[in-house]
Specification:
121 residues, alpha+beta
């Protein structure tokens, strides 16, 4: 998969709503940077990324897939947060302004429900 060959993801980078990196990023900007490095242009916002690629599921999730969840400002029907599956049960995401880009377990990331899983590329 192309995204797994992308440059190292910026763990510890400040998470700032609306930022697209490289010094600061939000959740959708993080995904945009990773996939752009692989030559694929997903949409910029979480609400747009919910329709990028093709639908998948947690049982078929692959490295590089987008996992959309309600987050603090969304719902299951209209997700407000996106992370990217890294493989090995791990997800990278930019949680919220004031936090940093981090890698968490898939189970902790999806504890509040999953709005969509999108396979890119």
């Amino acid at each position: 998969r192309a995204a797994s060959a992308a440059p190292a993801l910026p763990r510890g980078t400040p998470s700032v709503w609306g930022a697209g990196g490289p010094a600061r990023t939000d959740c959708a900007g993080l995904r945009l940077r990773a996939w752009s490095a692989a030559g694929i242009q997903p949409d910029r916002t979480t609400r747009q990324q919910v329709t990028d690629g093709s639908g998948s599921s947690l049982t078929r999730v692959e490295p590089g897939d987008l996992i959309l969840i309600p987050g603090s400002d969304g719902s299951l029907a209209a997700p407000g947060h996106v992370g990217m599956y890294l493989g090995g049960g791990l997800v990278v995401h930019a949680p919220h302004t004031g936090d940093v880009v981090r890698v968490v377990t898939l189970s902790s990331y999806t504890a509040g429900g999953v709005s969509a899983v999108r396979h890119i590329g």
